[in-house]
Amino acid sequence: MTAIDILGLEKTYSVGFWRKKPRCALKPLHLRIEEGEIFGFLGPNGAGKTTTLKMLMGLVYPTAGSAQILGMEINDPRMKAQIGFLPEQPYFYDYLTAGELLNYYGQLSGVAAKERERKVREVLGRVGLPDVMRVQLRKFSKGMLQRVGIAQAILHDPRIVFLDEPMSGLDPMGRREVRDLMEQLKQEGKTVFFSTHILSDAEALCDRVAIIHLGELRSVGAVADLTSSVEGKIELVWHGNKIPAAMKALGADCHVTGDTVRAVLLEGNQDAALEALRREPLRIISLIPVRTSLEEYFVRKLQPSRAAAGVTQ
Amino acid sequence: MKPSRRITIVAGTLLITCLVGSVLLLLHIDRERKGATLEEVLYISSPTLLKRMSLGYDGLLADVYWTRAVQYFGDKLTRGSEHFDLLAPLLEITTTLDPHLLVAYEYGSNFLAPKIPGGADQPQRAIKLVEFGIRNNPNQWHLYYDLGFIYYMELGDYPKAEQAFAAGAKVPNAHQIMPLMAAKMAEHAGNIQTARLMWVTTYQITRDPMVRSNAVAHLNALQVDEDVTTLERLVSHYREKTGHLPQKFADLETANMLRGTPVDPLGHTYKLMPDGHVEVRVPDDLPFIEKGIPIGYIPPRKPKLPPVN
Amino acid sequence: MSGRIIHIASNTFREAVRDRVLYNLIAFALLMSGAAILVGQISIGIERLVVINLGLTAVSLFGIVIAIFIGIGLVSKEIDKRTLYTVLSRPVQRWEFIIGKFFGLAGTGVVNSFFMALGVFAALLYVSHHFQATDGWVLVALYFIILQFLIITSLALLFSSFSSPLLSAVFAFALFVIGTFAEDLRGFAGLTRGIVRWLATGAAYMVPNFSALNVISSVAHEQPVAGQLILSNTAYALVYASMALCGAVLIFERRNLK
User: Fold this and answer.
1) Would you call A225 exposed, middle or buried from its count of C-beta atoms within 10 A (0-12, 13-18, 19+)?
2) How far is B79 from chain C (nearest CA, A)?
3) Nearest chain B Cα distance for residue C20, angstroms
4) C217 at the B interface (CB within 8 A)?
5) Which residue of B148, B287, C132, C244 could cross-link B164, Cys pair, CB 3.0 to 4.6 Å?
6) Fold of A2-222
7) Structural domain of residue B172, as residue ranges?
8) Is the interface score ipTM higher than 0.90?
9) What is the pLDDT of residues B162-220, one digit of tens each?
C-alpha cells in the first residue's frame, strides 16, 4: 500500500512585522512513496526538505493541501504510533540518561512496560551505543546524540522511519553504520524516508529519489533511471609531464604541475584513457571519481534556477 | 491537517466557563473580605518602616493607601459604623509615604476631626496631621485653611483659627478668602454667617465629591437652624400679640408675619407643634441640625449625605 | 491518554530536579537557619512573628521565582531546542503535553514548598522551643502560597506557549506584582468613570487575585483564617489556573513549530 501520499502540500510564511511579505517555503508538492522502499529527499539547504518533514509530522500546519500516511490523517495518534522521526541536529533533555530518555519515549509511544527495558537495550546496541544506558545526555558528543536520535526513531518498531539529515555529525565509520542500518530496516520491510544533501549516500541507498529546490519539486524517480542520462567524471593522475595525444582526443582536461599531470575526463572513457597511458608507458598515481552520476544529474537539474536565483555554492 | 476543532471547542468553552467562574468567585471573596486587607496591612504599624520597605516606590504606595483610606471611610459611613479607628493610621501612612499628597490633609480636616457619625472624632490627631503637612508644604495655603477649619469647627478655638488663616494669607498665591476668614475669626466667629461662609468656601475650594457633599449637608443644617430660630421667634411674637399660640402657619400668614408656607432646604414643609415649637418633617434627611429636632428622635447611625455629583 | 500525561509530568519533574532546581532549598535552609539563630540571640520578644513573616515571605518569593523560571525554561527551552519535535511526532496530543508539563511543574513546586515548610517549622521550634495551636494557621498560609504557585505556573505556561523566554518571564512576574495589589486595582477602577471604568474594571477582574491569598501578616499575628475563605480561594485558584491552561492549550494547538 502507499506509505506516504502527499497531495499538494504547500507552505507560505508571512514574514515581517505587519505580516505583509509572504515567503514561499514549499510550492504545492505531489509525491507518493510506496511501502518498503528507501526514498531519498534531496536538495540543497533551504530547499524545503525540513518544512515538508515538519508538515508530515504535524509540527507545522500547511497553507494548503494535505497528506496521508499509511492511509491515515496526519494528526491521527494511531498513525503516529507507527512512525518514527529523527529531526535535524537533535537535542535531548540534558539531564536524563540515555536509558531514561528512551524509556520515556517508549512510554509515550505506547511500548508495553514489560518490553521497554529490553527494547531500549536492544536499540542502543543496534545504533552502536551499548554501554551508555546510565550516562547523562549532556555528556554525549554530537555523533552519539545522532545515534540516540536514530535509536528513539526506531525504538517502537515503526513501519515508516523519517530521518532528517541522518548522517550529519557522523564520521565516515558512523555514516557507514547508519547506511547499513537503513539497509537492515528495509530488509525488515520498513519504509525509510530521509532527506539529505549528501548525494553519494542517496546514490548508494535509495530506490527512488526526489530532488527539490527553492520549494519546488524538480524531479522524481529511480536513481538508475535518472542517472542513465548522465555520466560521472573521473580524475586521473600520472607521473611525468607528458600528455598522450589520445588523451586530448578523449576530451580530457589536463594540467601539468611539477612532475605530475592531472586529467579530468568522462567516466565512460576511463578504459581508453588507461590504455593510452599504458601504451606510453606512463606510471599512474591515482584514479578517483570526481563526481558521481547522481551529483552530475543533480547539478544539472539545479542549474537554470540557480542561475536565476543568483545562488553560488 | 489543521488544528483540532474538537480541542478548540472544548478548550474554548472551558476557558469561557472558567473566566465567568473566576469573576464570580472574586466577587464572592471580596464580599467575604471587606476591609480585611486594611486590617492586615496595618500590622506594619510604623509608617516610617513602611516607607523604607517600599524601596523607593513610595509615591505609588501612597496612592494605594490613599485609595484605601477613601474606600475605608466611605464604606464605614455606608454601614453606619461608630468606629473609624483605621482612618487616622491610613492617612498617616499615606502622608508619610507622600507628604505632598494634599488631598489627604483635606480629608483629615473634613473627616478625621468631626464627631461621630460624620467623622472619626479625632481632632487632635487631625491637627497633628495637617501641621505635618504644613511643615512639608509651607506654601500651600489650602493646608492653613484646613488647619483653621479644624480649630473653628471642631474645637471652637477662634484665636488659633485666626492664627492659622492669617498665616495662610501670607503665603504667595493665597486664596482671597484667607485674610477675610482671619478677620471673621477675630470679630464674628460665633456668627452663623461666618459658619455659612466657611462651608461655602470649603465647597468651592475642594475637588473631592465627598467633601462637597458633606459641606452641602452642613449648609442645609445651618439654614434649618436659622429658619427654626426665625419661625419660633415669629410664633412668640404672635403669642404676644394675640395672647394664644398659632394653630398652623397659615395663622401667621393671616397676621401678616409670614408669606407662603415655610419649607426647609430640601423642600419639606416645617411642622408647627402645639406648644409653639417648630420641627422638621423628615429629620433623617437633615443630619447635623441643632434646632428643630423632633422630641425623642434618635438619629440613624449613618448620616444621610446629599447625593454626590 | 492520562497515562501519557503522567509520563510527561514525571519526566518534567525529573528534569527539573536534575536541573538542580532543588538546590535553592539549600539557599533557603541557610537563610532560615541564619535568621533563626540571629533572632534567637537577640530575643526581642517577637521572635515568632519575625520567623513566620520572614519564612513565609521567603517561601512565597522562592516559589514564585522557581515557578516562573523553571516553568518558562521547561517549555520555551523545549521549543527552542527541538526536544519537542521527537515528543510530538509520537502519539501525544499537544494539549496532553501542556497539561503534563503543568502537573510536573506543580509537583516540583509542591515538593519544594514542602521542604521549605519543614525549614520554617524547624526555625520556629528553635526560637520558641515549642509549638502552639495557632501554628496550624501557618499551614494554611503555606497552602495559600501553593495556590499562588499553581496560578503563576499556569500563567508561565500560557506565556511560553507563544512568547520568548525572556518576555514570558517578564509578563509572568509583572502579573505577580499586579496580582498582589489586585484588590487595590479594583478599588482604583471603582473611582474612574465612563469607558475607562469599563476597561479598568475588566482588567482588574482578569488579574490574578493574590491579595486574598496573602495571609502571611495575619497568620504571623495568630489570626485565624475563615474556613469559607479557604474554600473560595481553593476554588478560585483552580478555576483561574484552568483558564490560563485552556488559553495555553488553544494557543499551542495553533502554533507552527519552526
Assistant:
1) exposed
2) 18
3) 31
4) yes
5) B148
6) Rossmann fold (3.40.50)
7) 138-207
8) no
9) 899 999 988 888 888 888 888 888 877 777 888 888 889 888 888 888 888 888 988 88
